[in-house]
């Protein structure tokens, strides 16, 4: 993932969880933080930044921000070139 | 060749129940949310709630009476009533039949109920236009009304923060215009989404029993029974983001014009979050995009006519403007249509 995109994505994701970006990246557990508002806001953010649709249960399985980024990277990688 | 029949919207009148549920009320009941947080997440400060025993038909009759009081037409001129609701008075008869009598419409008036939710107003317009332009009717009263709040469990904040009750009455008449004033339309259905926004029990497929009345804790600490409304918000959100932009694109190409030919966009007022996301994705300027649900919430089939009527009254749209309407949700069902403002 491009470093600028990653930074802006992480900052916005931190807003979703109402923490700062450093806390988010220091291994904060997301397991208990996925309420419906957080799921919706993260889906919207991923759609906005990467034009990707992720399923709600794919997100709620992610227990850390590293796993969210891995999910996005994997889905970006699956896209055919030129799309 | 006979004279071309062109359907046009002649008037819209609305009615909201008196009861109110504010963010302060919700915050008192559901202590971990503040009123401001609820507003930030939904764009809604207050919803209107029907009283016990106050049905969708009562709200619809009040809206229609307001329309008649404006003098736009007499009840006796109406020759077709379409009542769109998902909260009817009875299984049978059709609620529209009881409203025909209550409104003093003539007995030679056609009357049907249609069951659609958030797409219902645009569906109703497509049907009303077809009735008028085929010569089947000349003055169609389209009433939308819903009382979803009666389906909500008191401890299900995921839906109580969103839905409100309300009604609108829209008059569709024959005009002498030389151009299409209602339409074209893009309609769509995907029943695979039926289980994502549903009241599972209460119809004949699954009848109520003591067991189905028991509320259980569900996701996020929300409570509901199978007789209550269930909405899978994230799935509905994904459906909307994947379906609505495509429907908008199809309608633009069908109506021979790009987005610049559209003066104003009135989408189903689901919640501000969803609307902002759609607006962003479709790159529509904020001043051309309606967000108007702060004081009434999501009134299902009536959000579009409520917003249209207010936009007209507030001068955001004026006679001759081309407006795109898009309804989407429960079903899944969606409908997009163009109108030229003629009311």
Architecture overview:
The complex is a heterodimer of chains A (83) and B (343). Chain A has 83 residues and is mainly alpha-helical. Chain A has a single domain (3-78), classed as Orthogonal Bundle (Non-ribosomal Peptide Synthetase Peptidyl Carrier Protein, Chain A). Chain A contains five helices and no strands. Chain A has helices at residues 3-16, 21-25, 36-50, 56-60, 65-78. The longest helix of chain A has 15 residues, at 36-50. Chain B is of the alpha+beta class and 343 residues long. Chain B has two domains: 6-175, Peroxisomal Thiolase, Chain A, domain 1 (3-Layer(aba) Sandwich), CATH 3.40.47.10; 182-340, 3-Layer(aba) Sandwich (Peroxisomal Thiolase, Chain A, domain 1). Chain B is 29% helix and 24% strand. Chain B contains nine helices and 15 strands. Chain B has helices at residues 23-29, 35-42, 56-69, 95-102, 120-133, 157-160, 233-254, 272-282, 303-313, and strands at residues 6-15, 19-22, 46-49, 80-84, 110-114, 139-146, 166-175, 182-189, 197-198, 216-217, 223-224, 230-231, 264-267, 322-329, 333-340. In chain B, helix 1 (23-29) crosses helix 2 and helix 7 (233-254) crosses helix 8. Chain B is globular, with a radius of gyration of 20 Å. The two termini of chain B are 28 Å apart. The A-B interface holds A 35-37, 39-41, 43-44, 47-48, 53, 55-56 and B 41, 158, 219-220, 232-235, 237-238, 241-242, 273, 277, 280-281.
The whole-angstrom Rg of chain B is 20 Å
Which percent range fits the helix content of chain A?
Answer: 55-70%
Overall spatial form of chain A: globular
Instruction: Report the CATH topology name of the largest domain in chain B.
Output: Peroxisomal Thiolase, Chain A, domain 1
**Assembly level:** heterodimer
Biggest β-sheet strands, sense, barrel of chain B: 5 strands, mixed
**CATH homologous superfamily grouping of chain A:** ACP-like
Q: Which architecture of the largest domain in chain B would the CATH scheme give at its second level?
A: 3-Layer(aba) Sandwich
Give me the Rg of chain A, rounded.
12 Å
